[in-house]
Structures are given as C-alpha cells and as structure tokens.
What we know:
Blueprint: E1 2-7, H1 12-15, H2 29-37, H3 39-43, E2 49-52, H4 56-69, E3 73-75, E4 97-99, E5 105-107, H5 113-128, E6 134-139, H6 141-151, E7 166-171, E8 177-184
Parallel strand pairs: 1-6, 2-3, 2-6
Antiparallel strand pairs: 1-7, 4-5, 7-8
Helix pairs in contact: 2-4, 5-6
GO molecular function: phosphatase activity
Protein name: Histidine phosphatase superfamily (Branch 1)
Pfam families: His_Phos_1
Amino acid sequence: MEIFLLRHAETKANRDGALATGSGDTLTPHGRSQAQSIIEGLMEFEVEAILSSPYPRALETIRPFAQAAKLEVDVHPCLAEGQLVLGESPVQEELKYFRHTSGYDYPSEHEAAGAFLSRVVEAHKLIVSQPFARVLVVTHGHMLRELLNNILSMPNKTRFPHENCGLTHVSVGEVNMVNYVNRPMCSN
C-alpha cells in the first residue's frame, strides 16, 4: 500500500508562526493558491482514495484536487489536528467526538494528549484498512508526525518536519518504508 500524507496549505496562524490552531482556521489567499498549485503534482500519484481531517483548512486544501481527480473526500474526525506530544507518550484515553455545526464530527477542543494518541492509533487503522493501493491522507502537522511515528513503530519519538503542502510518501507492507518526507508540493 502506498500512503501519501499531505499537510494542509497555509493559514494565517501558520503564516504567523503558531504551532497549532483551533478547528476553525481557514486558508489565507496564498493557501488557496497553494491548494490550486498542488493539483498537477498530486495527479501524478494516481491516488484512488482521499481521507481528510474535517477541519476547514484540510478540506479547503484538498477540494480542488478532489474535483479535478473526480474523487470523493472521505472525512474522518480521527485525522483532525491534536496537540504536540513531547517526551513520554501518555496513556491512551477513550475517544470522544461531537457533531460540529459543519456537519462533521470533531474531537474536543480541549482533548487530552492521551485521547489524541488514541486518535492516532485509530487513524493508522483507518488508513491501512482501506481497500485501495494508493491513498492520500490530508491532515495536520502534529497528526502527521504522530502518524509517522506510529506507522513506522519508531523506538524513539521523531519530530518529522511538515511544511504547508509538504507531502510524505510511505510504503506499507512486510517492511514499512519512507520514500520521502515533507516533499514540497507548492511554494511556501
């Protein structure tokens, strides 16, 4: 299975250097331009399915490509942003989602680190359970880092870099292999 992990395009908070933002952060005009500029590059990967965070910045990033590729966007709350987890991993906690006014399920804005890590495990299971050979996952920086650590069963937590519209390609099989990390798909 080929997994392509894409971080959303630029938001105001990203541009201003914030590490993480709430669920309502949307793309800047430059971010909307980035979302258009990734279409051609993503077409080359011949993805068969798109999984996305429910947050507007992820959906706004992937919709132009999804329309061009004639693919549905499968939205999952487990792919939403979470908090940065440094050092020892906390104990996993029960997942709790609520129905947002957008119509999508969201994790709590005040989610504990253990619940976030439970979502990472859920996201990993969701991705590898897909019946497709080539899957694009659109999410956020902290989720991408934790997903990579989980998929690769890293013995020590690694802080993989992820710029806006940075793409990471992981081959999952008997041996999980990273083909590249944070490949720029657009200008930052």
